[in-house]
Write a structure and sequence with these properties.
Blueprint (H helix, E strand, L loop, with lengths): L9 H23 L19 H34 L4 H23 L6 H28 L7 H27 L13
Helix pairs in contact: 1-2, 2-3, 3-4, 4-5
Membrane topology: Multi-pass membrane protein
Organism: Circaetus pectoralis (black-chested snake-eagle)
Keywords: Membrane, Transmembrane, Transmembrane helix
């Protein structure tokens, strides 16, 4: 089975490294080109104008693909562990995979439809990506607890749950503040609301 093949553990590390590089490279190019202010711009702002928009879109789409591969490997791993332990229903594992795949589709939408070109589609993609991501990591945290102590340590479960809680807490203000924005714009003047 794929999840027991040697070397498959590099995929999640590649996902994190590639995604980080996507954000950093597009940020550096956007700042050097004068397209964004250097102090904490929105991620989407750093991928709005060429040339960084092409790099951002390409790299985030690769990240979405790596996310799909990572989630599928996790799904297979849980299925294999579940054969002997029966700690979670297979349908729960499948549901978690489907939610994760929705998040990856949302990432692809964010990467493909730039913030200023098609803001409503971009925003829907971001909502799907972040919302599905929060639900996915919460479900994975619950599955991890159910697999203790045979397949996970409680320390790992607590770390996963802490990340889930922080993500849930961060998601709420994101929705609240995003709903208050009536116009998408990169450069704001001091007198504008």
């Amino acid at each position: 089975m794929l999840c027991y093949m040697p070397g498959v553990a590099f995929v999640p590390a590649l996902l994190v490294s590639w995604s980080s590089a996507a954000f950093i490279i597009s940020y550096v190019i956007a700042v050097l080109a004068g397209h964004v202010e250097p102090l904490v711009p929105y991620i989407s702002d750093t991928g709005t104008k060429p040339p960084e928009s092409g790099i951002f879109g390409f790299m985030i789409n690769i990240s979405a693909l790596l996310g799909v591969i990572t989630m599928y490997i996790r799904y297979l791993l849980i299925e294999k562990q579940n054969e002997s332990s029966h700690f979670v229903r297979s349908s729960c594992n499948m549901f978690s995979l489907c939610i994760g795949l929705m998040g990856c589709i949302g990432m692809g939408i964010v990467a493909t439809f730039q913030e200023l070109s098609v803001p409503s589609v971009h925003d829907i993609g971001a909502l799907v990506a972040f919302g599905s991501g929060v639900v996915y990591i919460t479900l994975q945290s619950i599955i991890s607890y159910k697999s203790c102590p045979q397949w996970n340590t409680y320390f790992v479960c607590h770390i996963r749950m802490a990340i889930s809680v922080i993500s849930c807490i961060a998601f709420i203000p994101m929705i609240v503040f995003a709903s208050q924005i009536s116009m998408t714009k990169i450069h704001w003047m001091p007198g504008e609301k």
